[in-house]
Amino acid sequence: MGEEHFVETEKMKDVQEKLEELSKTHFVLVHGISGGGWCWYKIKSLMEISGYKVTCLDLKGAGIHPADRTTLISFDDYNEPLIDFLSSLPENEQVILVGHSAGGLSVTDATHRFPKKVRLAVYIAATMLRNGFVTEQDVKDGAPDLSEFGEPIDVYDMWFGLGPEQPPTSAVIKTSLQRKIVYQMSPLEDSTLAAMLLRPGPIQALKSARFKEGEGAEEVLRICIRTAYDRVVKPEQQDAMIKKWPPQNVYTLESDHSPFFSAPFLLFGLLIKAAASLWCSE
């Protein structure tokens, strides 16, 4: 009995240590185009109540970031807040990096640059391309195609930061279409909030996203969370990117493009499950 009790006690200690380590996990949440750190408010609340550390970044020109988004044409410029944040972390600190939609490009960029600082990369309804938009197929797989809702001029409000004769530098889905396209399964109050806070996203900067393979980047674990009723990054696009660059795990949510609004508890559960799997595998 004494030996059995000792073994059980050691197991309990090991579990307790892993739980304590898990509670120290630092999640860094990256929004998609036109969004901001505000879009994670439900997930941030759930995580912090549960004892996790959470950082919700605003990329350049997004959320409350003061930059003029209509003149952003470089992806490196747009993603600078995330890169600066990771650069500022101590060498021995690792984070779980979570990207939604176009935020997947930011996650991939960061993983190539700082593979030792990214414990896990999570893509939610996201553009998950190993090298960014290099080929026409990459664009077909990873860029939203909203042509079923009309011509671009009917779907987007656009800004021409380089002049009226040049392609638009930023755009946002028209307020009248946002709920139909992005938030069709989300609570009305959340889509109303989004309509008040969304800002034009730097489409030229995102189109320029191309990444060099970073040494050690392929060793970073990746998880993909599919959104089954997504009208922005459609399920077949998500499946194509998964097939082309397979992650370690794929989960599916019965949600629209914005599960942080439409399925926050389920999304929170998957994120914690993903984090727990890291420590339990050690």
Automatic annotation (TrEMBL):
BP GO terms, sorted: jasmonic acid metabolic process; salicylic acid metabolic process
A GO term for molecular function: methyl salicylate esterase activity
The keyword Hydrolase is assigned to this record: yes
Species this protein is from: Anisodus tanguticus
Keywords: Hydrolase
InterPro entries: AB_hydrolase_1, AB_hydrolase_fold, MES/HNL
Name the record gives this protein: AB hydrolase-1 domain-containing protein
Pfam families: Abhydrolase_6
Gene3D superfamilies: alpha/beta hydrolase
Segments passing through the bilayer: none
